[in-house]
Amino acid sequence: MTHANGNSLTRRGFFASTGAAALTVASTPVVASVEAGSASNFKFEINRTVDEWLTQLGEQSYAIMREGFTEAPKSSPLWEETRAGTYHCKGCDLHNYSANQKVVLEKGWVFFYHAEPDSVLMAIDGAVPEYGAMSEDAALIELHCRRCAGHLGHLVIIAGGMKHCINGASLDFKPTAA
Ligand SMILES: [Zn+2]
């Protein structure tokens, strides 16, 4: 809140001092929307230090879940897993996905039609070359865990519809007991 207000005051001061009245008016809705987004006091339920995350996740899952990297296709055995069971966030064990929503696609990541209710949040991500989004302007919808913010993957259109394209390194699979 304080930060956003500071920015808007600085901008208004700049426009006023240069006499750019038209720009001041035009920028008002934009500033307002930025303030609305920045004013959120949302806090994730689970927060750990960098060292704690590294110890818990290991280097590969840390790079994916806490820094937003994407694993190499078919690097996780979960991509072709077909047993019944549930998929849990590796960062906090929240039940994010279920096997009955999973589809195996040759692309080699872990695909689901839907997440479990109230388990996954979305954000706007930047370019992801691994998914063919090479341009700096390309934006994808990132999927992350509702409880610990851990980066899971992206929402993509593939094989005729929208899918959750998830890194196996972000998930723990718990097969249903036979
Ligand atoms: Zn989590």
Task: Please characterize this protein's 3D structure.
The model is unreliable at 1-37 (pLDDT under 50). The chain has two domains: 2-38; 50-175, Metal Binding Protein, Guanine Nucleotide Exchange Factor, Chain A (Beta Complex). It has three helices and nine strands. It has a six-stranded antiparallel beta sheet with strand order 3-4-8-7-6-5, with no helix packed on it. It is an alpha+beta fold and 178 residues long. The chain is globular. Bound molecules: zinc ion (ZN). Zinc ion is lined by residues 89, 91-92, 94, 145, 147-148, 150.
Assign the structural class, choosing from mainly alpha, mainly beta, alpha/beta, alpha+beta, or little secondary structure: alpha+beta
Quote the beta fraction: 25-35%
Biggest beta-sheet profile:
6 strands, antiparallel
Number of helices: 3
How far apart the termini lie comes to 52 Å
The parts where pLDDT drops under 50 for at least 5 residues are: 1-37
Strand element count: 9
> What is CATH's topology name of the largest domain?
Metal Binding Protein, Guanine Nucleotide Exchange Factor, Chain A
**CATH architecture identity of the largest domain:** Beta Complex
Based on Cα principal axes, name the global outline: globular
Which small-molecule ligands are present, each listed once?
zinc ion
CATH class wording of the largest domain: Mainly Beta
Helix content bin: 25-40%
